[in-house]
Amino acid sequence: MLDACKIAEIKCLKLMNETSAVALEYGIFRRGTLGDETRHVMFVDMGYSKTSVCIAEISKKLDKIK
């Protein structure tokens, strides 16, 4: 991925796995509905050969996604 960014002359700031990206996207788009509380959300990815589960703790500030 980093080599592809170099070839395309794109500055790559950070790489993250798919599950973290989904949790971050959910937090960004649901930020207005969160209020002041912290919400626990479960993301399930059921693929052909594997299933992965992520439970994220999302706050309105998006300063922590555990």
Overview in brief:
The protein is α+β, with helices and mostly antiparallel strands and about 70 residues long. The protein is about 35% helix and about 25% strand.
**Element-level helix/strand string:** HHHEE
Estimated structural class:
alpha+beta
How many helical stretches?
3
What is the total domain count?
Answer: 1
For the biggest sheet, the summary is: 2 strands, antiparallel
Number of DSSP strand runs: 2
Rg for CA atoms: 15 Å
Largest beta sheet: what is the strand line-up?
A: 1-2
Report the β-strand fraction as a percent range.
Answer: 15-25%
**Per the principal axes of the C-alpha atoms, what is the gross shape?**
flat
Blueprint (SSEs and pairs):
Layout: H1 2-7, H2 18-29, H3 31-34, E1 39-46, E2 51-58
Antiparallel strand pairs: 1-2
Describe this structure in words.
- With 66 residues, the chain is of the alpha+beta class.
- The chain has one domain.
- 33% of the residues lie in helices and 24% in strands.
- It has a two-stranded antiparallel ribbon with strand order 1-2.
- It is flat.
- The mean pLDDT is 80.
